[in-house]
Amino acid sequence: MANAQTNNSKITIYVLSCWIFAAFGGLMFGYDIGISGGVSGMDDFLLKFFPHVYERKLHAKENNYCKYDDQLLQLFTSSLYLSALVASFFASKAATKLGRRPTIFMAAMFFIGGAALSAAADNRWMLIFGRILFGIGVGFGNETVPLFLTEVAPIQHRGAVNILFQLFVTIGIFIANLVNYGTSMIHPNGWRLSLGFAAVPAMVLLIGSFVITDTPTSLIERGKEVQGKAALKKIRGVSDVESEYQEIVAACEQAKQVKHPFRNLAKTASIPPLLIAILLQIFQQFTGINAIMFYAPVLFQTMGFKTDGSLLSSVITGLVNVGSTFVSIYLVDKVGRRKLLLQACCQMLISQVAIGAILATNLRETGTLDKKLAAVVVFLVCTYVMSFAWSWGPLGWLIPSETFPLETRTAGFAFAVSTNMLFTSLIAQAFLTMLCTMQAYIFFFFSGWIVVMGLFVIFLLPETKGIPIDSMVESVWMKHPVWKKLF
């Protein structure tokens, strides 16, 4: 079956456009990750919404590690992820009942609403309500886009196609860093432009939702077999799709027997992919990546860079992030998932320990880092971001999207998305306080987690390269030395 799927497909202009339009859901998400930290560091933004933080920042002798420690400022960032957490479960229902394409449309609409309200905000609560709308858009987009990309991708390119989502996340972060660098020089409303421009990728996704087809799996699952077969022919670019069509029909028939997919996740066969999906999301956040990405400008200011210099440094890390994701696209279907994850654990561990050691020995509560050491830290941050971008970043979304059987796929992936959002919000809410309390030792905290992650990959994570998504139970879980004991 795998061979039949491999041979009966070709890449057409139409299917490329489907992949790229859908991947703009990742660009929305990435833009928001990148924009939050930059806006949080802008004086005009702080003066309007968080004047006490602005006053604290002005004090020359203020503790380097604590000057941005403010729960409401962190709520500005984390509120999006809390609303995304709740929204992902509604998105799961929408993706199953209405289809992948309408759910993507809803994601774009919510995000546009969030951009409009945030850009027009005149008080903190308008600002935070705008973030909540952003969050609903992110919840719907992050639930549906990786599933869409996995379901429309031919098996031999599934990893690379799914990683388009993460590639566009990194492009969004990079664009946000560039926008913040430019708008930081526009006074007093540059921050409004930063937040308002979030509507641009959402508009592209909105237009794309009218161009793309729904996935064959979603159409057949909802009883639209004729449209499903036509969609399969269209995205495969060939007319002979009978074997793959029959496989999808069989999976859908099996899925129809399941009346309560969320309840079904408690069954033995669902435990391995569910645990793997949840742990991948937790570990993805405890690499410390979003602490770096959310607060890169703030972090670089802590090390003694001026505002413009810190934004420029975060632009550099954003560019590294984008470039390194192409490595994953190239290698994921060649070397597999496990090797990329393990290599990255080693590289991230070295980078984090080195950053922690430099800051612990050289950055006191007042004063700044030596310029050469600051440059070394920027380089180490880049090597850290580089390894994350070709491993835990994209594979954290890819592996959960390809390992659930159809009957629990949207429900299982909703748990993955909600877990990601929960721990993203926890990191966003806690990072500046942790930085204040733990100071440089926060990097050793994340380093400890990276060791745990490496052990997780070695003992519990199976290789899923080249396995048809509807054959995971028989081909992966039943053969794994640990998980096969559950069957």
TrEMBL record:
Say yes or no: keyword Ribonucleoprotein present: no
Localization (cell)? Membrane
Task: Identify the SUPFAM superfamilies for this entry.
Answer: MFS general substrate transporter
Transmembrane portions of the chain: 12-31, 72-91, 103-121, 127-149, 161-179, 191-212, 274-298, 310-333, 373-399, 411-432, 438-461
Residues of the Major facilitator superfamily (MFS) profile domain: 18-465
What is the topology of this protein in the membrane according to its UniProt annotation?
Multi-pass membrane protein
MF annotations from Gene Ontology: monosaccharide transmembrane transporter activity; symporter activity
User: Transport among the record's keywords?
Assistant: yes
User: Which keywords does UniProt give here?
Assistant: Membrane, Sugar transport, Symport, Transmembrane, Transmembrane helix, Transport
Q: Name one GO cellular component term.
A: membrane
Taxonomy, superkingdom: Eukaryota
Query: Which family, according to the similarity comment?
Result: Belongs to the major facilitator superfamily. Phosphate:H(+) symporter (TC 2.A.1.9) family.
Q: Which PANTHER family match?
A: OS07G0206600 PROTEIN, SOLUTE CARRIER FAMILY 2, FACILITATED GLUCOSE TRANSPORTER
Matching NCBIfam families, A to Z? SP
Q: What is this protein called?
A: Sugar transport protein 8-like
Q: Which organism is it from?
A: Nicotiana sylvestris
